[in-house]
Amino acid sequence: MKTADQVVTDVERRLRNTWAATLTGTDDPPAWPHPFPIGEPTSSALGADAAGMADRVAAWRDWERRHGLPLRYRARRVLGTEQELPTHLPVPDVDAAAALCGGHWPERIARARRRAVILAGRYPHLSRPDRTLTAVDALTDVDFDLLCRAADWFDAHDATGLTPRQVPIGGLHAKWLNTRQALVRDLAGVEHLGLLPAHPARVHFTYLDPEHRAGGGRVHDSATVGDRLPLPYLPQVVVISENKDTAIHFPELAGGISVEGVGNGGATIAAFDWITGAPHLFYWGDMDADGLEILDGFRGAGVPAVSILMDPASYATWQPYGTNVDQRGKALACRTPRPTPHLTGDERALYEHLVSAQCPGHRRVEQERIPLAVALQAVRDATSQASAAGKGR
Q1: Do 153 and 260 reside in the same domain of the chain?
Q2: 268 & 331 share domain
Q3: Cα–Cα distance between 58 and 50 in angstroms, integer?
Q4: Which pTM value belongs to this model?
């Protein structure tokens, strides 16, 4: 026989899976009312633990009185006497289920019911209103109102040629619209909003070759994905740097270019074959969990970079200059390691050390804490080793 807590867990599971379809009338068959089994012990189990069963039945009867939800009973013979034992908890509707589960559920169901009425009245064309209701569940009332106003505007206006930032809707900003375009399309009943596509991604980089610089060529440059850019020289060494300052100020290097890493933008970097096809391609980032996850993501996106100064030996040398707080002063905490299939064994070992609860040193060593001359020497050493290995084949 289940306890009341166990059955309430069953109720919440069903509520979580069915509330949207119930409130939009698309549950077929209806999810509520629903009888939740309490359990029916065998005759031998009843006889073997009659006292314990009596206690559990008494607990259920007390629960029934306190919650006002009648249980379903069945007569059973226990040690020669007829006993009425509870078998099911019938929950009549979604509101009773929400009240029983408590917490955020009553308010959530009330809010969702109001929104379901609005969606049905203003957007009757929705083919899956339950999915739409689920999609708007996490929106604040302000954002839900803005969503409806945006859908109504796009239904009545042609936005062809506008950027998201230019759409004339009060309270709407480009980032809000960019993350909710699919919802706006569904409510407006249109396949396309007509907005201009997002501008192509760009990379910024610095020419390191001393001969190029001495000739008066530009030092800093940028390239847009999809554009043809005639480089003044084809780089032999490319260093992708996680942080802008280290990329801009990287020391001069024959045939070298330093590239700003654009955060998690491995796919952007991968779009430039003069980067991915460079004879020597390096990645240098912070020695922390984020930096190593970014490195893993770059390789997964098609950037075959060798890391520098992102291994246990480098950490042991430079960790005294590290930190245990982020840029907002919040402590860097341990966390569950993510899969990082593209890290080397040494990189993965450092990653697991940095995220573990037992990490004795600093969890972050920012690359700016390492002198650029050290990074330059690391690049030269790695380049020489790779060249020597190539000649030895």
Answers
A1: no
A2: yes
A3: 12
A4: 0.64
